[in-house]
Amino acid sequence: MDPRSVKTFPQLVRAAAAAFGDETAITLEGGAILAEQVSFAELDAQSATIARALLARGVGKGSRVGFIHGNGPTFAIVFAAIARIGAIAIPISTLIKANELVRVLRQSDVSALFVQRTLLRHDYVERLCDALPGLRTASGPDLRIADAPYLRWIVSTGDDLPASILSLPTLLAAGESVGEDLLRAVEAEVHPADQMVEIYTSGSMALPKGVKHLHGPAMARAAFIAEMTGARRGGQVNAVLPMFWVGGLMMFLLPGWITGRVTACTEGTSTSSRHAMGSVLAEEDLALIAQSRPYWALGMSETFGPYSYGDDFRAPGYPVCAPLDHAAEQFEIRVTGEDGGEVADGEVGEIQVRGYALTPGLHKIEREGYFTADGFYHTGDLGLRDGARIHFVGRNGDIIKTNGSNVSPAEVEMELQQLDTVHSAYVVGIPDVQRGQLVVAALVAREGATLDMAAIEAAMKGRLSSFKVPRAYRELSREEVPMLPSNKVARRQIETLMIDRLGRG
Question: What is the DSSP letter of 253?
Fold first, then answer.
């Protein structure tokens, strides 16, 4: 079978092994974990070994299995082992803190958890024990923990594991009782309509958001992105985004798997405010991105990557992303007003999306809150209709309403970042009795530059309408820019920070 035409993950693993064999699939620079380099045949064989062990422990169709692993061969092997037997693979961010980890484990209902022992000097078994203190005192690996009520066992590596955590060799030994014939029979019952993965990301809710995706749409999306990006056998791509989120998984790992391309990983990935998602980038960063095509526009976890792309890298006045000139394969896009009808040319409304690869739903969340009656997803993004083109103008919750006027933070940030001394700008609205909201700006200086706030304000008065000009400015270091676990700037935290620094509590 051609890997590009597969419909399920077990088909992909076996088809890629047959097509590309001993050719290198994934490499890892730095760190001694399960493997530094694996071939497509080894991905098949090593994931099959773990898959048999999972079957021996009673994991099967629909079982919810989490794993905490950084980019690299081990991530792919564990992911494949779970998905090829019809269980639901739930990757968990390696950036996650103990208090966040408790919420994800409880919200996701995982019954089993794979944990990479160390990454970038972080001990994840220790972090897990901080999250679930009962793990330090438990007498054995059969878990009963009220804070994660469905969690039954955890597996990791090392000679000094607490009694509550299984060692990987112990787990694998159990798999010797499961033969190849049973594994193949299980894989044959994995269908395109079965759930394959659940991506956890921060959303507008207090709890983490679990986004479901199915085997068939995942394979179709991987083939589409591979074709659009020119992925080819024997080529190589650097996986600069984490694979536990949609960006790394769908832009690097899966397209490489179906085409025979090498996915090159390092222990560290891009998770800094310099390239944070949803932010206006500085000119030198934009210049690097502009060299590559296609010009992806908007995408999200719910659409399993980009659902739109543009003919231009940027349109004047719209700095955050490329215009939405084209819907990705098997997607529809519309912009609707408050009455639910499509907006007229020149008007702003909510961008909604529908399609084959759209998530079928969010874990534990009823569809009515996020989907229209005809199946479109409420993205929460605002778009301006410009003929056949749509311009992204901001998140619905980010638009600042001051003195009865709407201000797009992205527009003001773009103007601020044109200044020689400003590297990054974060414009937010804070409560104000007279205006409703006050437009304020947190600024990060360029390397070696000094911010002259009076000069910056004067420049903005010459570039923007008066109601768009920030009324106050404060400087932040890059390290002070608050980030969400999903590598997005935490704008609500910036609002709180600015309220405090301006003495408006």
Answer: I
